[in-house]
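Hi all, posting the design record for the shared folder.

TITLE: backbone redesign
STEP: 1 of 1
STRUCTURE INPUT:
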């Protein structure tokens, strides 16, 4: 709901100010970036709500539908949706960082709205590719982990990548296969073709396929990669991308702080007061963003690096990662980049002032009398001299 509200309100602001301010204004570019951030975080919200709905539907009977659910197209699409939303959220935050760094370092130059739009198109393309590459059929030999057949009398319930090679070698050497079927290459397509020829009149077919997003009940990708998995390098690239993005933002924001501090001494008192307010507002936003990103993404990156180093990370860690860490980060980002937290703090201060002013005068006088009575017990007058009672 929060991301939807930010998307609608930002779209309204862009359409309202387009004719008045022009497409080259910094304000419209900032709103465009906030819109992209909100949409990407909205995708993560759709993933979270879908997983929660599915959990309610299969409560108490999940074991009966585990195989069907994890090998379903719905689970794979939800996993891809999570990757697209999460990666685009990170890339949009990097673009916002670059934009703000450019605004501070070159305040006289005006960035073009078209340039910001092209940058967002490129980032969305990269994010969509990150999410959909594991689902491309031609990449199944890299991302597909298990398959199961409808004839379990010959094959066990699930055939993994190691069993695939042995079965292909065995089938290619059977006497009822022609020389054309004696293959040297291995792959899931070759396995399906050879298995189907065992009984041409009633061919054996696959019933379930477990891909990159099918390892866990919440349809997460393999964020904590294992070197035994063929796709571990792809997961490693995702972790490194997010880790480097955070480091890049951290360096840029430190540079922004230093630049803002160095310009204070060169400005007049009036302009210094205005810029100090703007700088304080920006610093509060940046601090909230950095803390949020650090608390949400760094634990995921660290656990992934520890897994690659050989330290065992239990699969139970995927559940809080998919339902708590990443969704919370995505839900907070649009509000952290907007002025809503500052407005809420301003309303809170107004509420405190109103509560203080609403105290009746007689209660204030009663409070002062109590203080004076308590003081008189400890302080007395004797012959005009002040005495303190121990």
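Okay, here is what came back for every position:
SEQUENCE:
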């Amino acid at each position: 709901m929060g991301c939807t509200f930010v998307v609608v309100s930002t779209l309204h602001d862009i359409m309202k100010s387009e004719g008045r301010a022009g497409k080259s204004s910094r304000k419209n570019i900032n709103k465009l970036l906030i819109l992209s951030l909100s949409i990407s975080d909205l995708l993560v919200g759709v993933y979270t709500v879908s997983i929660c709905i599915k959990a309610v539907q299969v409560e108490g009977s999940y074991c009966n539908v585990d195989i069907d659910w994890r090998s379903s197209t719905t689970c794979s699409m939800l996993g891809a949706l999570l990757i697209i939303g999460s990666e685009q959220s990170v890339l949009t935050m990097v673009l916002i960082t670059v934009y703000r760094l450019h605004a501070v370092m070159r305040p006289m130059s005006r960035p073009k709205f078209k340039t910001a739009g092209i940058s967002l198109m490129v980032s969305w393309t990269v994010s969509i590719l990150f999410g959909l590459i594991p689902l491309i059929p031609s990449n199944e030999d890299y991302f597909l982990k298990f398959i199961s057949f409808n004839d379990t009398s010959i094959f066990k319930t699930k055939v993994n990548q190691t069993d695939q090679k042995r079965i292909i070698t065995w089938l290619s050497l059977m006497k009822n296969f022609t020389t054309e079927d004696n293959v040297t290459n291995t792959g899931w397509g070759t396995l399906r073709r050879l298995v189907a020829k065992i009984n041409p009149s009633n061919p054996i077919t696959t019933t379930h396929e477990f891909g990159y997003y099918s390892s866990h009940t919440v349809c997460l990708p393999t964020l904590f990669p294992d070197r035994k998995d063929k796709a571990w390098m792809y997961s490693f690239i995702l972790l490194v991308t997010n880790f480097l993005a955070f480091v890049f933002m951290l360096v840029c924001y430190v540079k922004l702080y230093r630049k803002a501090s160095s310009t204070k001494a060169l400005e007049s008192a009036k302009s210094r007061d205005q810029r100090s307010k703007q700088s304080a507002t920006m610093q509060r936003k940046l601090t909230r963003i950095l803390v949020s990103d650090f608390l949400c993404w760094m634990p995921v990156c660290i656990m992934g690096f520890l897994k690659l180093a050989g330290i065992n990370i239990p699969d139970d860690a995927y559940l809080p990662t998919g339902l708590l860490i990443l969704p919370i980060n995505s839900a907070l980002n649009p509000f952290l980049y907007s002025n809503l937290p500052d407005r809420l703090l301003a309303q809170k201060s107004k509420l405190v002032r109103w509560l203080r002013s609403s105290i009746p005068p007689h209660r204030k006088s009663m409070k002062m009398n109590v203080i004076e009575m308590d003081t008189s017990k400890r302080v007395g007058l004797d012959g005009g001299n002040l005495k303190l009672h121990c």
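COMMENT: The two ends are 63 Å apart (CA to CA).
Let me know if anyone wants the other runs.
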